[in-house]
Write a structure and sequence with these properties.
single chain, about 180 residues, alpha+beta, Alpha-D-Glucose-1,6-Bisphosphate, Chain A, domain 4, 8-stranded antiparallel β-sheet, 6 helices, about 40% helix, globular
């Protein structure tokens, strides 16, 4: 009897995970990020880190540029350090009940500045309530690394791609 209950609970959790990441493709990410599907289709599958290189630009200038882009897109800054060129954002709804946050590090390398964006995501309140009702148990999700794939991780990653692609004359790559 106890084994049957555990198996049922495990099956519910698997179905919930599928529910929370399915039905969200490139078209949804395009809609939430404002980027074209063609642009998004060029991203390396399962990429977790976005790198932007800006030639002949001091690190302070890139720091101020990305800071302004973040504020323009409605991100709130939880921590920043202009001397260490570090920005962390608060969780923000990136669309489709997906909460996203970023850690951004900027470094200087012989007249070039390099920015790395690492993204985390978790399901928003609406998605969590739906998944909990579907599974019949309360689900608590922690922050997880976002990567370029279908589903909510892709929506969170797509918002970071939008930030990176807004850097004027920046060369964007993915790892």
């Amino acid at each position: 009897m106890k084994t049957k209950r555990v198996a049922s609970l495990l099956a519910s959790l698997v179905l919930t995970a599928l529910f929370m990441t399915s039905c969200i493709g490139t078209s949804h990410v395009s809609k939430t990020s404002g980027l074209s599907q063609d642009y998004l289709n060029m991203i390396t599958k399962n990429a977790e880190v976005i790198t932007v290189v800006k030639h002949d630009t001091p690190v302070d200038v890139l720091f101020e540029e990305v800071y302004g882009i973040l504020l323009d897109r409605g991100h709130r800054i939880s921590k920043d350090d202009k001397e260490r060129h570090y920005i962390a954002t608060e969780g923000k709804d990136a669309g489709e009940s997906t909460v996203q946050r970023m850690i951004i590090n900027i470094s200087e390398n012989t007249n070039n500045s390099e920015m790395k964006i690492r993204t985390e995501w978790k399901a928003g309140t609406e998605a969590m309530m739906g998944a909990s009702m579907f599974a019949g148990v309360r689900i608590n999700q922690e922050w997880t690394t976002a990567k370029w794939e279908a589903g909510r991780p892709g929506i969170a990653f797509g918002e970071s791609v939008a930030i990176a692609s807004a850097i004027k004359n920046g060369i964007v790559s993915y790892k």
